[in-house]
Design goal:
alpha/beta, binds magnesium ion, twelve-stranded mixed β-sheet, binds threonylcarbamoyladenylate
């Protein structure tokens, strides 16, 4: 067990010493929890094979699941990627820094451990002033998966990161709660038609406005059958799952609330929209935010999934938002937590 140092950084310009100390952990090959606008990441020098190996150990993550490289601005792209299509620059200009990861062909200076042996690399510029300052100060790209133990919900605040990583890593930088709350959107730009590999903080509609046609990888919307391999290796793993089984209920929110109320057992947990939190007497209810407020739902969904593990609930129901905008990412995270156990009640008034 190691001592995990906690840094509180709110103003990177005023707190140069803390930024330097955090960057020094990265430079010397250590592991550092870092805030981003999406979720907290578990960062290390992405060019250092040994440091990256330690990330996999600390998380208990399978070695074939590649990591995203975080860079401070688009000018670093050519250091780690080659054959970069013009679309990458259009997207970077429009959405970086921000919740978008691009899959591009990698250069040979990116180690195999970082890319899980693939000849591509996922790369993104996160929109968080503290982490941008740390990467700038370290002067190396930071490989960072989400900072949870493998299989647990992603951390959206420093406390979640501590729950999973205290004693396992060198430091955690507390830069406040994450503004987006779900991980970055992943777009593969190495195929003829750009392909969405993971829905996330940047809506698919926004990508289509810039790119035109975007294909959606099957793993985004459906469970994989045995032996099928998604293009994003991480999409095949059971994820985000609380200890109790989850059932996701999709469709009109009045219908889903009524369905859940009728099917409540003893010790049932409910993830509900704000409008319905009073409808489940005797249950542990987690408020996901208002039906229409997908930004709030995205910020709360992982905390909701985490919270039930400290309770005695034996089953969890979740109301699910419609799949437009951020709804696609929220629904994907809920369905993955449910192992794609979904009850669909349909839209529209009865
Ligand atoms: O918002 C985020 O993306 C956060 C923050 C910390 O940046 N990071 C994150 O990393 O969610 P992680 O490791 O939890 O998820 C990365 C996903 C995995 O499903 C992985 O398989 C996929 O990205 N991925 C990474 N590199 C890839 C590549 N070269 N080709 C295909 N998929 C890749
Ligand atoms: Mg993750």
């Amino acid at each position: 067990r190691m001592k995990t140092q906690i840094f509180h950084i709110t103003d990177p310009a005023a707190q140069r010493e803390e930024i330097e100390a955090a960057a020094e952990i990265i430079r010397r090959g250590g592991l550092l929890g870092i805030p981003t606008e999406t979720v907290y990441g578990l960062g290390a020098n992405g060019l250092n094979t040994e440091a990256v190996t330690h990330i996999f150990e600390a998380k208990g993550r399978p070695q074939d699941n590649p990591l995203i490289l975080h860079i401070p601005d688009v000018s670093w792209l050519t250091r780690y990627c080659r054959n970069i299509p013009p679309a990458a620059y259009r997207l970077a200009e429009r959405f970086w820094p921000g919740p978008l990861t691009m899959i591009l062909q990698r250069r040979s200076n990116v180690p195999n451990v970082t890319t899980g042996g693939l000849d591509t690399v996922g790369i993104r510029c996160p929109n968080h002033p503290v982490t941008l300052a740390i990467i700038e100060a370290a002067q190396v790209p930071v490989a960072a998966p989400s900072g949870n133990l493998s299989g647990r919900p992603s951390p959206t605040c420093a406390r979640h990161m501590e729950e999973d990583m205290d004693g396992r890593i060198d430091g955690i930088v507390d830069g406040g709660p994450c503004g987006v709350g779900v991980e970055s959107t992943i777009i593969d730009l190495t195929c003829p038609v750009p392909r969405l590999l993971r829905p996330g903080g940047l809506p698919l509609e926004s990508l289509r406005k810039v790119l035109g046609e975007v294909a959606v990888d099957k793993a985004v919307v459906a469970p994989l059958s045995a032996g099928e391999r998604p293009k994003a290796p991480g999409m095949k793993y059971r994820h985000y799952a609380p200890k109790a089984p989850v059932t996701v209920v999709t469709g009109d929110s009045r219908r889903t609330a009524r369905y859940i109320r009728r099917n409540l057992g003893e010790h049932t947990g409910v993830i509900a929209f704000s409008e319905y939190v009073g409808d489940f007497p005797g249950c542990i209810v987690h408020d996901m935010g208002s039906v229409q407020d997908k930004g709030e739902q995205a910020r709360r969904v992982f905390d909701a999934l985490r919270t039930f593990d400290d309770t005695d609930v034996t089953a969890i129901f979740a109301q699910c938002p419609s799949e437009d905008g951020l709804g696609l990412a929220i629904a994907n995270r809920l369905k993955k937590a449910a192992g794609f156990q979904v009850v669909d009640l349909g839209e529209g008034e009865e």
